Write the C-alpha cells for this entry.
Amino acid sequence: MFEQYLLEAGVYAIWSYLAFGYTEGILSARFSRRIYAIGGYIAVYVFGSMCWKLGADYIRIGENSIYAGFLPLLPSVLLIAGLQKYYFYPNWPRQLFVLASLVAGWIVLRFAVSPLSYVLFDYWQPFFTWLVEYSVAQGLISAEQLLTIIGDISQLALMGVLTVCRLVQLGLFALYLWLIRHYFCAQDYNLSWTESLFLVFPCITVLVIDLTLRVMAYSVDNSALMLIYYRAPETLFLLPLISLLLLGMIVTAVRLFRGMVQFKEAEAKRLLLENGITDIHRQVEEMQDIYGDMRGLRHDLRGHIASLTAYVHNHLQGEQTEIEAYLAQMTKTTERLDFADKTGNPITDIILHQFRQQAKRTGISFKADFHYPAHTSFDLYDISVILNNGLKNALEACSKLPPPAEIAVRSYRKGNLYFIEISNDFAGDLIWRKESGLPCTTKEDKQQHGIGLVNIARCAEKYQGSMDVEVVSKENRQCFCLTVMLYH
C-alpha cells in the first residue's frame, strides 16, 4: 500500500510540473523567480492531493462506484484554481479553459492506458507461471522459499505495471498539453467569455463522453466491478482510440480557434491598411496640390521681391535702408518655404519635412539621407507607407526619452536592391511575438495598434523583399534599427 501512495505522489509531482508549464504558456506569470515558483506549485499540489487521497481512502469515499474517478475532481479543480490565482495574474476566461483542458485531458487518458494494464497483466500471468515452474524444476528455488516471496513478487509486478501505465499516461498528457500550448493564441490576445466557452465546450463534451464510457465499460454485480474487456475484447483497441480521438478534438478546436483569431486579426489589419492607404492617397493628392501652389507662390514672390528691390535702387535713393531691410526679411520668409530635404520626389520631401518639424518641436535630432528611387517600379504609396509608419514609430519611441534623442533615416541602392533604414533611440525592453518575430505594441488596444511594422513587412513582400528589425546597444541607451529591402 505504501508503494502505491509513493507512486501516486510521484505522479502528482510530474503532473503538477506539466500543469505549471502549460499554465505558464497561457496565463501571465506574476512571479520573478521561476525555480521557486515551480517548487512551491509542486509542493502545494502534491501535499493537497495526497491529503485528499489519504482521507478518501480512509473513509472509503466512492468505493465500488463507477463515479469514483470523478470524485477527486472538485478538490483538484479548487486546488489548481487557487494556485493559478497565487502564481498568475487573473484572467478568468483563460483560467476557465486551462482548468477544463487539464481535467478533461487527464481524466479521459485513463481509458487510453487501462487496456494496457489489462494486456500486461494478461501476459504476466502465463509468464509468471512458466518462470515458477522453470525455477522449481531447475532447482533454482524451493517450493517453500517460493511461497515466502510470491507475495512480494506479485506486489512488485503490480507496481511495475502501474508504473508503466502511469508513465504512458503522463507522456500522452505532456504531448496533449504541448499541442494545445503550441496552437493557443498569444498571451496578449484578449480572450472574451464567448470565445472561452467555445474552447471549454469540447472539454465538457469529453468529460461527459468519458463518464458515459465509464458507465458502459463497467457493470455492477454484487458491488464488484467487471471490466468489459472480458466480454468484448475489441474494446481493448476501441477505448484507447476513442480517448485519443477525444483529445484530438480538443486540440483541433484550439487550432481552429487560433485560425479564426488570426483571420480576424488579419481582416482587421487589412481594413486598417486599406483605410490608411486611402488616407495616404488623399493626403498625397492634397500634398501635390499644396506643393504645386507653394512652388508657384515661391516663384512669384521671388519675382515680386526682385522687382521691388530694383525699383527701390532706381527710384527711392533716400529710403533704401528701411525698405531693403523689409525686403530682406521677405526673402528669408520665402526661403523658409523651401524644404530642407531634396529627395527627388515632392511627396517624400513633404513626409520628411513634417517629421523633421515634429522632431524639432520635441527636441529630437532628425538626420535624413534619403533619396527617392527614380526609374523603378516601386509605387509611391508603398514608399510613403514605409516612411510614415517607420518614422511614426521612431518619433513615439524618442518622445518617451529625455534629450538628446536621435532619429536617422537613409536609403541606398545595391544593384536591383533598394534599402531604407530607419534607426531611433529607445528605452525599455521589447516583447517579441513568437509567430511573426516582431515586437509587440506597448499600447493597451493591441488589436487597433501595433500594425505599423506589419504594414511595412507587407509592402516589402509586395516587391519580393523583406524587413529586418535589430536592437543595438548605444552608450547608455538602445537603438532600434529597421531595415527594409525592396527588389526592383
